[in-house]
Amino acid sequence: MVQKKIIKKYKICVIGAGHVGLVAAASFSELGHRVICVDSDKKKIEGLKKLIVPFYEPDLEKLVRENTKKKNLLFMPSLDEGIKKSDVVFIAVGTPPQPDGSADLTSIEDVAHRIAKNLVSYKLIVEKSTVPVQTGQKIKETIQRYKKNTTHFDVASNPEFLREGKAVYDFFHPDRIVIGVESRRAENILKEIYHSLKASIIVTDINTAELIKHASNSFLATKISFINAVSRICDCAGADVEKVAEAMGMDERIGNQFLQTGVGYGGFCFPKDLEAFLYISKKLGYDFGLLREVKKINEEQRVYFVEKIKEHLWVIKDKRIGILGLSFKPNTDDIRFAPSLDIIRLLLEEGARLTLYDPQVKKERVFWSLRSQKEKSSSEETIAQIKFAKTPYEAVKGCDCACFITEWDELKKIDFKKIKELMHYPLIADGRNMFTPQVLGKMGFKYIGIGRV
Ligand code: UDX
Is residue 416 lining ligand 1, measured as CB closer than 6 Å? Predict the structure, then answer.
């Protein structure tokens, strides 16, 4: 997987065994470092000791298994012990969104206190969690304020650019590694930790590194919303957004990635990071109105898609609709801020009878998500009527519409002949423009895409 020659082995503590922390911990251990991964969730740590990875991420379980066996990777619930036994501490705890859009930094502050308490020898403290710009300074001030001796320490920022579903691959093949530091010592340690990856390393100050993360995620979200806005004009003008995106992407200055039209972006990063960037920009004195528009376009895209289905079926009440693909993107079981949840809510409001299918997402998780967001949640009665199918074919049986929301490979390869026989009315609503309208048309399907002729 990677050139394993490293120049120095570090004792690393990763705080937080979530998506960012666990991938980083397992991957650092694969690079040959000695890693302790701690998490306050004792059940999670007990599971990990038994090699149970708490979420689906390709190749992660293998890394955890192999490196635990080699004793390069250890899991423990004690933060204090983890910190004391390490030279470098990576903070990868959650920074969930608050109602006003700002990031909740309670866990980061708590960790900074614990580091101060356990600072028995020099340590490099690295923030890996996605945090608002200037958080590094706050971590430094907190440790400085509460440490009990004169022990020296450094704080650094090393933002994470991993994509869910490709996280392990991304760790070993980064486009760049960003390190924000205040001392040569911190810079050298981080360079040595990542030495065997042979990636380009951008060295900056801490604020700049934090801002690179804000700017990168927000720019990618902007790119998606831009092409989604173009798709709306394409629908009005009778043009094909897929061709527009293809031709735009061939211009090297634009690039062909993140120009896929559809029901918009979801996941735990883009929606949350965009809000946090908007919030912190305003706080610092700049109103980043462009990002508000990006968010608005993204939210409207789901509504627009459901309106198109409604336009075709006329009345949605009591119509049977199969929802295929629930995760916010393929190769993950994550449905946080997934477009599917908004689409399900909107269809339930119209009185549709839904059957859901996803290759990885568990039924309980969907019900929990539909119930949990207070301001948006659907009534208990309507949620209880949702059915779950074991196969995509079972989901569309007797349906008036098959609604594709996530472009899983399994769904891309679906047998449309079989689908046609099973459906009550052959309407395909393609939320990711995954299929060719003409091909489906020839097979006798009615097709709804986004921005397509
Ligand atoms: C993102 C960033 O890519 C990653 O660098 C950062 O560390 C975390 O946030 P992730 O949330 O895992 O990663 O997913 P990504 O693959 O970027 O997709 C995000 C969302 O955008 C998905 O819902 C996806 O379906 C959507 N998307 C992506 C589009 O709608 N169109 C596109 O062209 C690309």
Answer: no
Ligand 1 near 266 CB (within 6 A) = yes
In angstroms, the CA 305 to CA 286 distance is: 33
For the packed helices 206-237 and 270-284, what is the interaxial angle rounded to 10 degrees?
Answer: 120
Where helices occur in 238-269 by DSSP H, the ranges are 241-249
Nearest residue to 101 via CA among 307, 278, 297, 292: 278
Q: How far apart are CA 402 and CA 435, in angstroms?
A: 13
From ligand 1's centre to the CA of 291, what distance in Å?
Answer: 16
Residue 22 contacts residue 39 (beta carbons within 8 Å): no
User: What is the residue with the minimal CA distance to atom 5 of ligand 1?
Assistant: 161
Q: Which pLDDT does position 249 carry in this prediction?
A: 98
Structure tokens that stand for 380 in this block = 């208990």
The two tokens of residue 65 are 């298994």
Cα–Cα distance measured from residue 217 to residue 269, given in angstroms and rounded to the nearest whole number: 8
Answer yes or no: 401 catalytic: no
Helix (H, G, I), strand (E, B) or coil at 64: helix
- In the structure, how many helices (H) and strands (E) does the chain have? 19, 14
In whole angstroms, how large is the CA radius of gyration of the chain?
Answer: 24
Closest atom of ligand 1 to CA, residue 224: 31
pLDDT averages per 10-residue partition of the chain, 453 residues: 65 96 98 96 96 92 97 95 96 92 93 95 95 95 94 97 94 97 98 93 97 96 98 97 98 98 96 94 96 98 98 95 97 93 95 96 91 69 89 98 97 97 98 97 97 93
Nearest by Cα to 37 from 1, 75, 10, 71: 75
Question: Closest Cα to residue 270, out of 164, 150, 406, 357?
Answer: 164
For residue 53 the two structure tokens come to 């990875």
Q: List, in order of start, the domains of the chain with CATH numbers.
A: 11-204 (3.40.50.720), 217-448 (3.40.50.720)
> 125-158 in b/e burial notation, b at 16+ Cβ within 10 A?
bbbbbbbbbebbebbbebbeeebeeeeebbbbbb
Tokens of 192: 């040595």
